[in-house]
């Protein structure tokens, strides 16, 4: 199974309004609710690819309860009951039926945050409102560490995703990266700012920064220079997501650039999380770097194309997969 | 006790943001949650005035649970446990300690709606987002009618407040007004549009429309003409709230105009609900019309002045109360 960690989960609400006018009153014409936070988004895509996933992190309060109910609704029901972290592994072949997502979240006293995406139906623009996360106490962090160590024992790979809630020390991801390394579980870190800087120093297998996160980390907006710099800081492999230009991968095995066959228009929400799911599932399946990158780029492009923010369009994914362009850089350029 | 009915309760969220910019992402810097819907706001003010209140209406789903928890937190704890509708009546004198608010909401399958007030801390402007209410089924409406009839038996007065959720027929308030009249319980109706038009025909004791609601009902924006017209449609008494100009009362006992000593600046959210609480508490205490109107105007003005939307500033209320101007119209003018 693949483990995803989301320390700052969220109940994601999307509100459609005919037009967003500041200072006016709006009747929400359509709304949807889903369990959110980057690691939960990654888990949803992994499940769709047929990979059993376990999610941990924090959830609390009425919003935490709502999030967990929605998460339970997501997971396909199996004849033998939902698969736990100890359930036998399926063949984990992408393209099969959705695999279960197991809730191993740690309950906290504070309220899980909400995020609200207000979609203006006239312009298509989205205005985002993000509540602060719950204050997490030292005992709650200790409970998470214990749960994480247990889950690592059964994990083929782990993704550490998103921001830190208040109360969690800035070196938290570095701590989680070290535990995964000690347990011999490949670890991907997807965060930003100081938690990323600290986390990299603990030598994760992979990081997946976007151009802004790379620039914040390294001071450079030149993709090759910034990606190499990020690798020197400790990450074994750096997969830089360059938005519509695809991805640049600087790894111990080589350097590749992967690009979608054409630029697409759509909602980029969740495209990075789909890329993480593509990279991790490819790693667990033992795919080559070019095949992992093809999958990551096809999934993130199919997410931009999906009418529902954060979901991927399966038909588009299957159509794009063989058409992702891969260019290997000559060893001298490494 | 005073009964308030809120068919479309809401979990009211207030988000403070440094500045609301459409199409941008915002970190919510302050947030608050409270149980909402007009009848719940009225109950909160009645409780602060020392009146035992019972609230009914609908609540459901995770948001309904959150609303009920917040409602339970609001009610002062008494040594003998929280007062139910059958608890002995206290002296019900305003100015005493807060009285209990009893939750007699009917549970429904749908989710109680949220409302979100986004306050721009730069301009002070509020942008409102209101979710649609839950779809209420025929059996749920029947359960509400049963609960309402039981509660009327112990009520000194009842307020019917706010909009109708989807699934409730437009004559619902007319039905509730008739039951109250049959039970001999004074009934105040505070709604708008077609539910108000239908409800008036069932001859409520009081309605409290604002200028817009009156204009929608009667086609006139001239306060005296519109208020008289509303009375001819069936309401025994019409108290028109004219915003900063105070209130115009056309009643079987006379016609009065009440005005605050000066215009005030602030947030008018909840001012109308405070006025309803003032009118109902004054009725139950047997105050004269001028005293009821003084209380209603002082409470609504003190609500505009309060730093928290929907709460009233008690010191301002006590200071304003003796200074509200009352003018009686000569009988010939009636």
Describe this structure in words.
The structure is a homodimer of 334-residue chains. Chain A is 35% helix and 24% strand. Chain A has ten helices and 16 strands. Chain A has helices at 38-48, 61-74, 138-152, 172-183, 193-201, 211-218, 223-232, 271-284, 289-305, 314-320; strands spanning 2-6, 10-17, 25-27, 30-36, 53-60, 101-103, 106-108, 113-120, 126-130, 157-161, 187-190, 206-207, 237-241, 247-251, 254-259, 325-328. Residues 79-94 of chain A have low confidence and may be disordered. Strand 9 of chain A pairs parallel with strand 3 of chain B, so a sheet runs across the interface.
Topology:
Two copies of one chain form a homodimer.
Chain A: E1 2-6, E2 10-17, E3 25-27, E4 30-36, H1 38-48, E5 53-60, H2 61-74, E6 101-103, E7 106-108, E8 113-120, E9 126-130, H3 138-152, E10 157-161, H4 172-183, E11 187-190, H5 193-201, E12 206-207, H6 211-218, H7 223-232, E13 237-241, E14 247-251, E15 254-259, H8 271-284, H9 289-305, H10 314-320, E16 325-328
Parallel strand pairs in A: 1-5, 1-10, 2-8, 5-6, 5-7, 10-11, 11-12, 12-13
Antiparallel strand pairs in A: 2-4, 8-9, 13-14, 14-15, 15-16
Helix pairs in contact in A: 1-8, 3-4, 4-5, 6-7, 8-9, 9-10
Structural class of chain A: alpha/beta
CATH architecture of chain A: 3-Layer(aba) Sandwich
CATH level 4 superfamily of chain A = Ribokinase
Topology pattern of chain A, helix = H, strand = E: EEEEHEHEEEEHEHEHEHHEEEHHHE
Largest sheet of chain A: 11 strands, mixed
| Share of β-strand residues of chain A | 15-25%
In terms of quaternary structure, what is this?
homodimer
Summarize model confidence as the mean pLDDT of chain A.
92
Tally the structural domains of chain A: 1
Give me the Rg of chain A, rounded.
19 Å
* Separation of the first and last Cα atoms of chain A: 33 Å
**Coarse shape of chain A:** globular
By CATH reckoning, the class of chain A would read Alpha Beta
Q: Care to count the β-strands of chain A? A: 16
Using CB atoms under 8 Å apart, which protein chain pair has the greatest interface? A-B, 31 and 30 residues
CATH fold group of chain A: UDP-N-acetylmuramoyl-L-alanine:D-glutamate ligase
């Amino acid at each position: 199974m693949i483990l995803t960690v989301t320390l700052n989960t969220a109940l994601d609400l999307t509100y459609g309004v005919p037009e967003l006018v500041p200072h006016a009153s709006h009747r929400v014409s359509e709304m949807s609710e889903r369990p959110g936070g980057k690691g939960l988004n990654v888990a949803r895509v992994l499940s769709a690819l047929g990979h059993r996933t376990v999610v941990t992190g924090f959830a609390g309060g009425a919003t935490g309860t709502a999030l967990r109910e929605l998460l339970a609704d997501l997971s396909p029901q199996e004849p033998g009951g939902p698969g736990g972290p100890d359930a036998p592994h399926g063949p984990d072949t992408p393209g099969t039926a959705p695999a279960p997502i197991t809730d191993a979240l740690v309950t906290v006293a504070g309220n899980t945050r909400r995020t609200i995406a207000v979609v203006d139906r006239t312009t298509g623009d989205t205005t985002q409102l993000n509540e602060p996360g719950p204050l997490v106490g030292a005992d709650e962090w200790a409970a998470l560490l214990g749960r994480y160590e247990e889950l690592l024992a059964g994990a083929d790979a782990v993704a550490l995703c998103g921001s830190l809630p208040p109360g969690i020390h800035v070196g938290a991801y570095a701590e989680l990266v070290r535990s995964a390394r000690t347990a011999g579980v490949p670890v991907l870190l997807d965060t930003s700012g100081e938690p990323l800087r600290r986390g990299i120093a603990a030598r994760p297998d992979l990081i997946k920064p976007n151009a802004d996160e790379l620039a914040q980390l390294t001071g450079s907006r030149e993709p090759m220079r910034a990606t190499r710099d990020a690798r020197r800081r400790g990450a074994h492999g750096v997969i830089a997501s360059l938005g519509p230009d695809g991805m640049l991968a600087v790894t111990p095995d080589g350097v590749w650039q992967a690009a979608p066959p054409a630029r697409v228009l759509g909602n980029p929400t969740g495209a990075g999380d789909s890329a993480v799911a593509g990279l991790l599932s490819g790693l667990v399946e033992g795919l080559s770097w070019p095949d992992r990158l093809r999958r990551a780029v096809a999934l993130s492009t199919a997410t931009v194309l999906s009418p529902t923010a954060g979901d991927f369009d399966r038909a588009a994914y299957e159509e794009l997969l063989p058409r992702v362009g891969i260019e290997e850089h000559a060893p001298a350029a490494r």
